[in-house]
């Protein structure tokens, strides 16, 4: 009886998949749950706004401000150097910069709860800081990322994004650029059509073929744009819509689970299309993942895309 039960479980076969960026995942659907079964309890913020480094009125608690975007006379987004940088101009062996972008003034909200106009401000600040970093000829790559929640690596509760500019192109990004050069990324959106859960005139959001995370989502440009500086106001609006829609649906489905956002921004002279990855942190990686680089994921991306298509905000 036990063997018959196990045979039934394995009727839906596992798959080892490789995506266009070179990521590998083994999909294990027989172990899967419904998407809503991964929902977490929304974290409660314990730091008071009066004690928060990033809240309005506490600007003196951060390093001197580099840039800001204002609305109605108050800052909507602000940027300053990271107090504990990984890269800095005075580090001879780790030259670069490390900045913090505070996405919104409200301590108790997160990025998905920002208005569409607020998303536009946020992305405009990202664009400004990336363009400014590349003015330094010693900078070869700029990485923008967001850690949301303690399990995703956030050390402070107030919603924020980080930018790291470094003097070399990381090996993983070099591989990505090589794959783009060979045409591996040319037909990504076409191959991901059945896993696409949102698209507009400029961008499409989909769950990738070899998803490593439950409800992993990518947003990619439908045109040839590789740099934020190449996007006109209409394209920036389309990108803001795509990112807000994806984050809002995910947060409603998972009740504000922790996640990472990774911006892949093409280095100068490379041809990597604009790609933003949203990576929910619902499972822990263990020995197999660290030993092989292949990730076990119990949620098929086709199931994830269907859930995100159905979820409206």
Which tags fit this structure?
single chain; 313 residues; alpha+beta; HIT family, subunit A; 10-stranded antiparallel β-sheet; 7 helices; disordered N terminus
Point out poorly predicted stretches: 1-11
Structure class: alpha+beta
Main sheet summary: 10 strands, antiparallel
Helical region count?
Answer: 7
Report on the structure:
With 313 residues, this protein is an alpha+beta fold. It has one domain (30-310): HIT-like (HIT family, subunit A). The chain is built from 7 helices and 13 strands. It has helices spanning 2-9, 116-133, 171-181, 188-191, 233-254, 287-292, 301-310, and strands spanning 15-18, 24-27, 67-71, 74-81, 97-102, 141-148, 160-166, 196-199, 203-206, 217-221, 259-264, 275-280, 294-297. The strands form 2 sheets. It has a 10-stranded antiparallel sheet. It has a 3-stranded mixed sheet with strand order 1-2-13. The radius of gyration is 20 Å and the shape is globular. The model is unreliable at 1-11 (pLDDT under 50).
């Amino acid at each position: 009886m036990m063997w018959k039960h196990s045979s039934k479980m394995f009727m839906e076969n596992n798959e080892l998949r490789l995506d266009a960026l070179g990521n590998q995942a083994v999909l294990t659907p027989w172990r899967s749950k419904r998407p809503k079964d991964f929902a977490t309890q929304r974290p409660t913020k314990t730091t008071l706004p009066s004690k928060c480094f990033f809240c309005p009125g506490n600007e003196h608690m951060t390093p001197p401000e580099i840039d800001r975007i204002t609305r109605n006379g108050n800052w909507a987004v602000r940027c300053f150097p990271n107090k504990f940088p990984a890269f800095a101009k005075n580090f001879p062996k780790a030259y670069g910069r490390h900045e913090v972008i505070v996405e919104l003034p409200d301590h108790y909200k997160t990025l998905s709860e920002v208005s569409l106009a607020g998303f536009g401000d946020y992305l405009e600040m990202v664009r400004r800081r990336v363009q400014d970093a590349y003015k330094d000829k010693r900078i070869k790559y700029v990485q923008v990322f967001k850690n949301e929640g303690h399990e995703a690596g956030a050390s402070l509760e107030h919603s924020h994004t980080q930018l790291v500019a470094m003097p070399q192109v990381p090996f993983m990004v070099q591989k990505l650029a090589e794959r783009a050069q060979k045409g591996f990324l040319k037909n990504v959106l076409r191959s991901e059509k059945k896993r696409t859960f949102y698209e507009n005139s400029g961008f499409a959001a989909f769950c990738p073929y070899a998803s490593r995370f439950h409800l992993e989502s990518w947003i990619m440009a439908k045109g040839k744009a590789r740099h934020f500086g190449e996007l006109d106001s209409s394209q920036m609006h389309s990108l803001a819509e795509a990112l807000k829609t994806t984050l809002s649906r995910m947060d409603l489905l998972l009740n504000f689970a922790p996640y990472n956002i990774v911006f892949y921004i093409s280095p100068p002279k490379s041809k990597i299309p604009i790609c933003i990855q949203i990576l929910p942190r619902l499972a822990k990686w263990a020995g197999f993942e660290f030993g092989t680089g292949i990730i076990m994921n119990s949620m098929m991306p086709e199931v994830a895309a269907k859930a995100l298509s159905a979820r409206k905000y």
